[in-house]
Amino acid sequence: MRDFSELSEREVLALAIGSEEEDGRIYNDIAERLREDFPASAHVFTEMASEESEHRRALIDLYREKFGEHIPLVRRQDVRGFLTRKPVWQLPKPSIDAVRKMAESMEAETQRFYRLAASRSTDASVRKLLGDLAEAEQAHEHRADELSAKVSDKQIRAEDQTAERRFVLQYVQPGLVGLMDGSVSTLAPIFAAAFSTGHPHQAFVVGLAASLGAGISMGFAEALSDDGSLTGRGTPIFRGVITGAMTTLGGLGHTLPFLIPTLWTALSVAFAVVVVELGVISWIRTKYMDTSPIRATLQVALGGALVFATGVLIGNG
């Protein structure tokens, strides 16, 4: 690899030409990834790709004028410290917000490159073009938002709603199912063990086993329940991992207090943790599931109270 400072003007122009072509292809790749679910935003990135093509043509015209027809292959990965782009096809399916931020970052990085290249150039015409391109990139740093303004508010709202529904289906719902199961279903065996044995360590062992077992069981059950091809709920493995992890976390929350050697202190802390867990579940249901706060709280509290009472009754039986 070579340092950027070691490149000649000919090599800098060749690098800029290749970079503009690569950025244009990235924008086209993003547009293709978004086209099925977000056609309006896909159009935005197609236009951005067209603008990069205009920049590339201007650079090629100047290069021909100065250095002839042959353009050497100077790539980003050949220059030390140069900005790089991860191929879009290697990324998970991007969200609307993620690709907008990605576009802003690309424009900002390219602007810095052009300013640095222009400052090093001794040729007036080369310096002028690079400076103009830097100004263009600065003006386009928020180009994704500017082009989005051309799309109707109704289309953008529809796409944002689609993105939110996908987030709820693929992340919130499996996570909530796991958290509810882990937080509620493990209450009975943990508190039953605590009251029946009188030893916090025994309750901890039972809670640890119940939490891990429930996490594994729920993870497999969620993964096998739906392949996501029709429902859009995401890949079964990823969904199973989310559900299993949140189930385990929900159980461990009120299991860890039983590491405290004093029984009633451990019970008090565990009960407080349970209240917090149920409050978090109620908040998630209110925010993402269109459930009223009162209804969500009553439903979760009732279920938790019944399971807790079951554990206490069995433990004292």
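Above is the first protein from milestone M3; the second protein from the same milestone is given next.
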Amino acid sequence: MLFDKLFNLRLDFDVKISSFKWGISLSKISLALVLPLTSVAAHSVVADEDFFQCKTNIKQRAINDGFSSFITTEIIEDLSMIKRVVELDKRQPEFTQTFEQYIKARVTNYHVKTGKKKLIVHKALFDRLEQKYGVPRQYLVSFWGLETVFGKHKGKMSVLNSLATLACDQRRSEFFTQELFNLFTLLESNKVDKSQLQGSWAGAMGHMQFMPSSFLQYAVDGDNDGKVDIWQSEADALTTAANYLSQIGWQQKERWGREVILPKNFDFSQVAFDQYYPLSHFAQLGIKKINNNRLSDYKIDAELFLPAGHQGSAFLLYPNFNVIMTWNLSKSYAVSVGVLADKLLGAQGIQAFKKSEKSAVYSVSQMKGLQQNLNLIGFDTGEPDGIWGPKSRSAIRLFQLKYQLIADGFPNKEVFEAIKELNSKLSHDETGLGQPSE
């Protein structure tokens, strides 16, 4: 997903933000549905420490791009900075939730009960969408529930001011400048009205939390009233989401993945994480479905995901999971979408949770210290950022293999202790290396 490059938010665990209590998390900058698309020429940054000067830069850029006086005067002159937006964008909270806590906070009885009602209410619409776009209805409803709790929490911030604030901040100016100008294009072409523009602090809008770039490319009039209103029209929002998922490669006859059981003494040396293998490879390694049946012989590739290490839940993820990840780069979020979608059709949810799985909760600073120490002893995690992403999983796994630990790629207590002991022997500085709480 573009967010991996633009935001460096390779999060597999979303952070717990009390003000976003229904699962709308800072880690994903709301939904976003972002692709590298613009309807106007690419823009360099307009950021300036002085917001008034930044507005001047924005105005000049808009004039150069041929926008009308409606944009260059009425819209741009009325822009104002929202300090709260900058605070939220720069916040790097501690990780405070286990995978189980994350899922249970987002796949609730309310989500399931309300989602099933939405499936009934919009049956005719979903019939049409499945036939035209090939995206099963339960996934659309699942995204809807996770994004805004079926429209209850669409965001109340000025999208114009939020995007202008972020465009004028040096940290991510290029991306948000482009989104701001995409929004200008929507206004200029009368596809949206200024009075509609409320959303998240990062500029995501409507029932499904689209960014302006996504609205420009994928918006569809689902109720055939001659306009697209992703704020008030559930049909428009759901149709646009179906179009988006279809365009980015949703495979109609395949599921997102499934929970599985690892055999005792599973050979972790045979599986690298964040890498796809034929499903038959996992069958040969003894992995089974959660009901203890053998995996099918269906010709499909899969990835093994252990969000809480070898003692927690295990999943095989199929190509559609990557489509969900394009919507939101967090694997925990993507699993939530799949689990909720399954529960809407009567599934019981994640069975491993019944075993009361426990996993370590580590902070950003602890993870950063772990990454620094792994780098020091020759296991490359990339630039330490405190995030348990693909490079960190790979480095931890290689460390575990070398020092005869269970190679699940997870930053558990044994990994912290082993590295601390090794660094002590090598007389390395242990500053910043903590142990995760259980």
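Note on the second protein: Confidence is low (pLDDT under 50) at residues 1-42.
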